[in-house]
Amino acid sequence: MGLPDTAAYQPPGVDGMDSESGAVARLLYTDGITALKGAFSREFAERMREDIEAAFTEARGRTGGAVGRGPNRFYVEIHPEQLRGFVELVEHPFVRRAAGAVLGADYEIVEVGFDIPFAGAKNQPWHRDFPMPEETRVEHRLTSLAFNLTAVDTEEDMGPFAIAPGTQWDDSPEFNHGMFPPKSHYPRYEQLAVRKYPKMGDISVRSALTIHRGTKNLSQKSRPVLVLGVDAKGPAKAVEHGLQVSRGYWETLPQRVRDHLFCPVVDELTPLTQKHNIEGLVMGEEDDDEG
Q1: Taking the model in full, what pTM does it have?
Q2: What are the φ and ψ backbone dihedral angles of 113, each rounded to 5 degrees?
Q3: Could you give the residue ranges of the DSSP H alpha helices within 104-213?
Q4: What's the rounded mean pLDDT across residues 219-238?
Q5: CA 268, CA 266: separation in Å to the nearest integer?
Q6: Where do the domains of the chain lie, and which CATH numbers do they carry?
Q7: Burial label, 62 (beta-carbon count in 10 A; 0-12, 13-18, 19+)
Q8: Is the Cβ–Cβ distance between 45 and 150 less than 8 Å?
């Protein structure tokens, strides 16, 4: 299990990339995560938090608007125009470079959402966000990326994100639903684990297959994090997530952004009912003494 030989997992086409793109791609194929500090201003992060809080209030006011990812932890998907900085985000050179280098020039934006662990959130079980695709298992090719932007300065007691580098290649029939490793594997993940403490304005990108967990929030503060999901060209995943843009908003978007948005253009947005429920995360860890 894991990454037996990093040289065997070099991303396709890396030799033809510029040095920065190649470096990002190599880190995603080896560690499974990389980041850029100070990619955005703190003012950008503050506006993002305002938009997250407004969207969360709206989502919690209707059935199916938010989905639990453990005790006192919620996930909400939103439409791009609910985020004032959407264009600035997807046009950032780091986003374009990472997505293009790993997923190809015709990558598709499939998901915009946010995760909020509140006070009392517990350790999540170690997991990946979906089962390993055949392209990854057979061809050792990554087909999706998740970008994360924190809306707060992350501190130790706020339940920081923990990730086990290199585990995007872990493949075992013991994984429950292809996503949850058995507890017998936990000591290895604990040994590999790195906790992340991003500041407002930082951005990270990871393979959602890399084994990770949210840790328990011992503070009285929430830790909202924006999620941007991007896939290699394929079936219309944005439709599965319910992503839409209004006709008026679509007309304001630069063509370069439109080229990566494969979702319905509608006269009026339909409020999103959350579909990306991960049942194994709902209860949190039964044994919550760790971390």
Answers
A1: 0.92
A2: -165, -170
A3: 134-139, 186-192
A4: 89
A5: 5
A6: 22-274 (2.60.120.620)
A7: exposed
A8: yes
Of 59, 30, 45, 13, nearest to 169 by C-alpha is: 30
CA distance 174 to 29: 23
Q: At residue 137, what are phi and psi to the nearest 5 degrees? A: -65, -45
List strand residue ranges (DSSP E) for the chain, in order: 33-36, 67-68, 73-77, 108-117, 144-150, 161-163, 194-195, 203-206, 212-214, 225-231, 245-246, 265-266
pLDDT tens for each residue of 127-169: 999 999 999 999 999 999 999 999 999 999 999 999 999 999 9
Residue 281: what are its φ and ψ, rounded to 5°?
-95, -10
Q: Give which of 91, 219, 236, 209 is closest to 159, Cα–Cα.
A: 219
Q: Give me 109's structure tokens.
A: 């934006």
Cβ-based neighbour number of residue 50 at 10 Å: 12
Nearest-10 crossing angle of helices 93-103, 19-30: 60
Can you spell out the DSSP letters for 230-284?
A: EE-SSS-HHHHHT--EEHHHHHHS-HHHHTTB-S-EESSPPPPPP----GGGSS-
Is the Cα torsion angle 92, 163, 12, 144 positive or negative in sign?
negative
| 41 secondary structure, DSSP code | -
Q: How far apart are CA 229 and CA 78, in angstroms?
A: 12
Q: Note the residue count of the chain.
A: 291
